[in-house]
Amino acid sequence: MPSDQPDLSIVIPALNERENLELLLPALRETIAELDLIAEMIVIDGGSTDDTARVAEKLGATVIGQNEQGYGGALLAGFAAARAAYVVTMDADLSHQPVFLKDFWDQKNDAELLIASRYVPGGRAEMGFVRRTLSLILNAAYGWLLALPFRDLSSGFRMYDQRALAGMRFQARDFDALEEILVRVYIAGSRIKEVPFHYQPRKSGRSHAKLIRFGWAFSKTLLRMWRLRNSGRSEE
What domains, with CATH codes, occur in the chain? Predict the structure, then answer.
């Protein structure tokens, strides 16, 4: 294996997250050093106007411009760019603390998809009442209608074994991509494990999720995944 081949790829979708990245990327480098890993930090820039790209590059990240819009489009760009056998996806807003990478790495052989879960025993979520309620309803609906044994299907803090993603095609391009990826990985027979996680509010800036728009996207994806789940096929 080439000496510069990374052990871990960290994919970070970002839109106007300069202030958060100035804290996140150095903290990631510190955690990576403590784990004694070779890792690449990949920032997927969704068209920022606040020097996100310049700051990310200055702090050692590879910056890739996003071709397909939406959170799902950012994930696709990140998966395509990642060179390591293991790929972590995480938010740029500091709601996903870098130190949790140690939990992922310790359990990398337990499953092909590890999910930092807010809703399993030991997990916590510091969220407003309305957002927390909607999140719980969304996860419960997906879990019940699709007969999935998971509590936090919408967590974006995950670690993938690249082999579980090989050859898969995903249609969703908004935050509903998280549910589609999980369903397809599960149907394909890969192991999925939820790891208790403490979710914290973003440090600065504002969320890019639009409730009505993404509610519609989640509904369409739920219908597609219900059909897929009951078709017995891993690809449409």
Answer: 8-229 (3.90.550.10)
